[in-house]
Each structure stands twice: as C-alpha cells, then as structure tokens.
Amino acid sequence: MTSKIIVVGAVEGAFPAVLEKISKLHAKNSFSLAIFLGDFFPDPENRTGEDNANLSALIEGNIVVPLPTYFTVGKHPIPAPVIEKLESSDNELCPNLYFLGKRSITKTSEGIRIVNLGGSLDPTITAGLSKEKYLPFHTEDDAKALRGANSADILITTHWPSDVRKGSKVVLPDGVETPSGEGCVANLCSTLRPRYHFSTSTNAFYEREPFFHPAAEKEPETRPITRFISLASSKNSLKQKSLYAFSIDPTSSAPITLPPGAKTAIITGRPSVSVKTTAAHERLPSDLKIASSASPART
C-alpha cells in the first residue's frame, strides 16, 4: 500500500508554527505520518521563556499534533521535562508525537521500516554501544549494530554520510560548505540500501541524484536505489526548503530499470571499516529490537 509521508528539517523549538503548517498540509494531502529530523527542541543554552511555555503546552497536550509524528535526537540533548514524560509514557510525548530514540529500528502500522541513528559520533568512545539514549552522541558500534537490521525503507541520520557528494553534479547554495560526513553513516547506508536517506543541514536543502547499489545474489537483475535528501532548518536564513513530501510503497520491488541520472553507489565509509552488503549473519544487540504494532510504532 502506498503511503504519503512528510519530512521536516530541524525546527529547533519552532514546533508550534510548524505543526500548524503541517495541519493545513495534512488536511489537503492526508499524510500517513510525519518525521521530524534533527533538533525538535531549541538549544538549551539559548532557550527562552517562550520556548519553555511552548514545551509545557506540548507536553500537556495543548498543541495539536495532527497525525502520527516521530522525532529523534539531533545535536542537542533532549530537555529534562521531555525525558521525564517519555520515561512514564512509553516514548509518547503527547497524543500523536512519538520519540524514535537515538538508535532504533521501527516498523510502522503501514509496514514502513525506519532505521534511525541520531546524534554525532563521539570520538572519545572507541568501542561499545552508547548507553544514554537522550544525549546527542553515538558510537561506531551504534551504527554497526543497526546494520543488523539488514534493510530499511527510510534511514534517518543527524549527519551526512561521508563522500555523498562525490560524483554528484548537484551544487550547494553559494556560501554553504558541505556538512561534515561520518564514515560509519556511509557504511550503514551501504549496508541497508534504504530507499530514502534523510539528514539535516543548517542553511541548505540538498537532494543529490539517486544512486544505486550492487545487485544482491538473490536478485541479480535488480539494483536497489537510494535517494539522499538533506533538509534545511526551518529557521534557515537562506529560505531553503525545510519540508519534503513523498509517497512510498514498502511492498514494491527495487526497479530493474534505473531512473535517469542515477549514479553508482560511491559512499563506502572509511576503508578501515569492512562493509557487509549482506548482513544476514549479524545480530541485533539485546537492547535493540524492532518496534512494531497496529498503532503508531514506538521505540
């Protein structure tokens, strides 16, 4: 079944206005779900009294969330009042608003498989999984653990995969530098071969040409296609695109004919990290399960 999804760049606390806009769009388009990338809440060092009031109103259910909506960890820690509510409500912050976690695999009621890796790589941790799901840091092993998901319809990461612009003719706006990429994110994308890979950047919208992955042994005639899309912050100064709507059918097969302009996959991460294109023998860590339910999925 085809589902309509709307994806939103980092709102950084501007969720009342953005949710109102989403409500109007949803009334016309009947989206199945919404995904908020990056930081949903403002930088704690710059939070204002208005921000605190908006946060309280959201937690108390006084701000309408019009459809099943998911948010993750960006570059700032999750606020303490949010953590308190999430811990007592199975990751549901208010009606229709769900926390994906920092490292998660979720299957929605529509059958859409979402893999999420929030936060930035913590270089001080050389091995092991991160234990704190509300802080904006992940490890190489966090990314490696998610490779055990084997596949994804949608991959969400705070950071770009390294080398994702290599071979692309799509340019960034004047004065905007390529955001820093992570090798572990590139390896994750190469392994999961998602249909869509979404990330964020402050002042730029970027959608590179689709790229295809090597064919799997079981389906030698098909080449999975990934579309990498990075959305600008809703507060970006260049008025770049911060909303992206699309349709997806998780039951459809990978195309046999490549779309015009498709490039061969070039994001392979760091040479020192081996990438398994088939990860059937990998196992999920004990604390990482696939969330699935008839209602909007929670992690």
Helix and strand arrangement:
Blueprint: E1 3-8, H1 15-29, E2 33-36, H2 49-59, E3 69-71, H3 80-88, E4 92-94, E5 97-99, E6 103-107, E7 113-117, E8 120-121, E9 137-138, H4 140-146, E10 154-157, E11 160-161, E12 181-182, H5 183-192, E13 196-201, E14 206-207, E15 211-212, E16 225-232, E17 243-248, E18 263-264, E19 290-292
Parallel strand pairs: 1-2, 2-3, 3-5, 6-19, 7-10, 8-9, 10-13, 11-12, 13-16, 15-18
Antiparallel strand pairs: 1-17, 4-5, 6-7, 14-16, 15-16
Helix pairs in contact: 4-5
Looking at this protein, list some descriptive labels.
299 residues, alpha/beta, 9-stranded mixed β-sheet, 6-stranded mixed β-sheet, 17% helix, 23% strand, globular, disordered C terminus
Could you characterize the architecture of this molecule?
Mean pLDDT is 87; it is low at 269-289 and 292-299. The longest helix has 15 residues, at 15-29. The chain is built from 5 helices and 19 strands. The two termini are 23 Å apart. Strands 6, 7, 10, 13, 14, 15, 16, 18 and 19 form a 9-stranded mixed beta sheet that branches. The radius of gyration is 18 Å and the shape is globular. Helix 4 (140-146) packs parallel to helix 5 (183-192). The chain is α/β, with parallel strands linked by helices.
